[in-house]
């Protein structure tokens, strides 16, 4: 009777290649989990907003928008906006430095000419 020979893993594939493949797989699993968690949080927030809206709670009242406008006109760097739970939350109006540098727009002054 002839002996059965099974193919073995080629010796040309180094161990570090296998380890790198496994590491990439683990990091993509972690990234996928983070995306799933973010999606779950976003869905929960949307459901909460829908429930508030359906309950008749005004989301953006004229008073809220007027107050926000006044804070901006006063030149404040940070504004306070009440959340839907009626808790004040502070937001910065400054563009983060890394984004400002990345999206810097070179513009010339705008001149208006009104000739009739």
Question: What is the element layout, followed by pairings?
Answer:
Blueprint: H1 15-54, H2 62-73, E1 78-82, E2 88-92, H3 97-102
Antiparallel strand pairs: 1-2
Mind explaining what this structure looks like?
- This protein has helices at 15-54, 62-73, 97-102, and strands at 78-82, 88-92.
- The protein is elongated, with a radius of gyration of 29 Å.
- The longest helix is centred in the first third of the chain and has 40 residues, at 15-54.
- By secondary structure, the protein is mainly α.
- The chain contains three helices and two strands, in the order H-H-E-E-H.
- The protein has a two-stranded antiparallel sheet.
- The relative contact order is 0.05.
- Residues 26-40 have a biased composition (Basic and acidic residues).
- Residues 1-40 are annotated as: Disordered.
- How many strands, which pairing sense, and closed or not: the largest β-sheet? 2 strands, antiparallel
Helix content: 40-55%
Query: What is the tally of beta strands?
Result: 2
Envelope shape: elongated
Q: Segments where pLDDT lies below 50 for 5+ residues?
A: none
Spatial gap, N to C terminus = 106 Å
Query: Which structural class matches the secondary elements?
Result: mainly alpha
Order of helices and strands: HHEEH
Beta strand %: 5-15%
What's the tally of helices? Answer: 3
Question: How do the strands of the widest beta sheet line up side by side?
Answer: 1-2
- Which value, in Å, is the CA radius of gyration? 29 Å
């Amino acid at each position: 009777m002839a002996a059965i020979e099974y193919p073995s893993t080629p010796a040309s594939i180094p161990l570090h290649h296998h380890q790198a493949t496994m590491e990439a797989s683990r990091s993509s699993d972690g990234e996928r989990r983070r995306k799933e968690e973010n999606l779950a949080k976003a869905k929960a927030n949307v459901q909460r907003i829908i429930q508030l809206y359906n309950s008749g709670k005004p989301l953006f009242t004229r008073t809220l928008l007027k107050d926000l406008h006044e804070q901006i006109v006063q030149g404040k760097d940070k504004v306070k906006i009440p959340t839907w739970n009626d808790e004040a939350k502070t937001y910065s109006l400054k563009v983060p430095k890394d984004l400002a540098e990345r999206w810097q727009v070179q513009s010339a002054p705008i001149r208006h000419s009104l000739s009739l």
